[in-house]
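re: ur question from the group chat, yeah i did fold both. here u go
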Amino acid sequence: MMRLKAVVSMSIMLLALFALPGAQAAPASPQSIAVLIDFGNGQVSWADVPVTSGMNGWNATTNATEMLGLQLVPAFGTFVHSIGGFADAWPNETWNLWVWNNVSGSWEASMTGATGINAASVEAIAWSYAAYIDPNMFIGPHAPIATPDNRYPWQSYRHDSFNTGLQPSFATNNMTAKWSANLSNGAIDTQIVVGGGREYVVTGGIMDFANPSLDTNASLICLNASGDIQWTSEMGRGYQVASPLLYAGMLIAPCGNGVVYAFDAETGARVWTFDTGSRGFPGISSSPIAYRNHIVLAANNGKLYSLFENGTQDWNVSLGSGIYSSSPAAKNGTFYIGNEDGQLKAIFTNGTIAWSASLGSKVRGSPTLVTDGIVVSYLNYTGTSPTNGGVAKVAYNGTLMWRTVTGQTPGSATLTANGFVSVNYTAATMIGLGGGVAWTTAIGGDFSNGPPTAISGSIFILRNDGSGHLIALGAKTGAIYTQKVLAPVNYALGSPTISDGVLYATSDNGWVYAFNLNDVAPSPSTGFTISMHNLMASFETPVSTGNLFQYSWDFGDSASASGRTASHTYSAPGTYAVNLTISNPAGQTLRLAQSVTVHDFTAPRGLVALAGQGEVTLNWTAPSDNGGVSIVSYKIYRAVQGGEASLLATVLASNLTYVDTTGVAGTTYSYYVVAVNGQGAGPASAAQTATPQAAPVDNTVLYVGIVIVVLAILGAAAIFVMRGRKK
């Protein structure tokens, strides 16, 4: 059989090497070919490659990986050995080539190598990193779930088998309601999975709170893109907190009664069931993943199960006293999961335990796998009460790399470009890649929230504060930039799902909500205004409600700032080129430029204070620079020499003189003048002093009196002399 496999493999390689491009008919006006890179773990990347004359599938592949920034290592010339570090590992994962069939609307395994595909004749090709279903019988892998029309599925609880909670393919900065639907079968506390233009939702069944008990079974419901129900399939009864898995044309749905159900993704028909035997409340709270054609999940009885695709058990292993909420992650032939004993466990694909790392009282977070380690949240308890918890990073050999305390009941960590974000019922905390806290944002709430969901530049959280709220934070700063209150009022215990530009949220009263994530680019209308005061300039851009824009200012003198508003004081007057760059999380940018002329508003010049008898006359000249705005008035200030000045008078701009007649003679005063323009007061002039003189004494009355007296005396004397002569 191995000889047959080798012969077949070599035949395919030779066919690829000698295939002639252009063997297939080309459409009239091809524009581009879509190239899918499917990493086999739920993560995908797409590139739309412009088609050029004579381009084949291998040319499109090399162009696509360059556009995506992924390293392509070929094998045998035009086969793929590795893309983005995911290397061929036969008989496990290999890179497989697919061609999109427009007629059937499905992927078909390529019957030729990439050089034999005329890029102008097909809509899309795909490279998938997947294991053969039966390498001995040469039965190939499952086709990718992503399609040209529905490019970015959400296949499992935390998006992928690395449990990142990150949809890196789409960035948004605006959120608008698309539709909502009441599924009328109890709480929806699990995460929606999406693929092929359909949404799959697990409803928990209607609760009789008087007893309490469930009156109806849990159900798996399939919705179309408009929110219409396509089919409903019943499961058992039990508290539903585990999310389903979309895999191999099936929905794998764990139930609170400890049974795993598999349904046909197209019809909803039941395919098989597997009973873990785990009972309790609930029997299963861990969500499944797919790895190397196996379905792997954990039950609350503390066992990790590996199932074949037909629902039969491959193996199970006991990992401790219980597993609650922690869902497995897989990489390089090893599974990672937390348990109720406070341990992170590593298990090989044959069910053998590799190592254990003790982190706290309980590990209920789902491990997130990154290049150099495993990041997972943990809890500490005193008795039955949680005391604190946090996020830890463990190397792939089980060595603790760092541990960061964040508060009580932290949820699973979500990967972002800025680090790892974890939420509890009061706050969201961003932990940098090195373990330091980057920011903490209070979000409020009545009890714990589900893990956050991230896309490029944004973090989405369902929090509970009287009702469910969908909130969006900027990943860089943690600032809340929009929120939606889910109606009708009820709690929301799940996590958002993002697929193809639509965000899905659920609530405890059985509603599903869909929001369009609009990629709003900055527009020229988002300009900026400038206001000046002396050497200080203030800048402002209009508020764009609900949008997450970043603003970067260059003031033209080597100084810079960020934010919607900014101010800057220049060191010298002059004309400066101010540049504003506005960007959104998708990387779209708008650059705006304006020149600003900065004036140095100077003081009135040449103030002179002339003392007179009982007055002081002030004269001055207008400032040499009015600050770029017309002067409207002058303010005159006076102080007794050595004392505090107070406003004496205000005169119009046309007046450059003022006479002070209110001073006390013999008192020395200090004067200064301030010019006022349309933006405010400028600097004060140099002070001048003056002492008003006493007014001269008016002796006119005295002199008149003396004259009158003298005249009277002379008159009297004359009369006396005349009388003497008469005698």
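okk and heres the other one u asked abt
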Amino acid sequence: MLLLFVGLTAVSAVTTKLRCVDAAREAARTAARGEDGSSAGRRAAPGGAEVAVTVAGDTVTATVRAPVRPLGGLLPRLSVRASAVAAVEPGGVQSGGVQPDGVQSGGVESGGSAPGAAGSPR
């Protein structure tokens, strides 16, 4: 029975991670075009996720962090994270902008990044 709960928690964590990757990519691409990346990231992110978009020079970095509740919520929450980077498009955002949003969840963090996120078509 314990193995079943561990397996279900792993599936939930992977699903949440994939949604975070998609949300980070969407936020980075939207912000690179000069639009509100945080809003775009929140629409694609799982519930309770934190979305942060940072512009530094000619790149936009979006990070999405979301809680995963293992074993049906009986244990402390875990946190998964995904980041994506996109090049600022001509006429896009100005350097130095930061747009944080959301509530930080506690727990263990599993880092990650979105390979090929810079301008990859959907």
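fwiw on the second one: The chain is about 30% helix and 30% strand. The two ends are 40 Å apart (CA to CA). idk if thats what u expected
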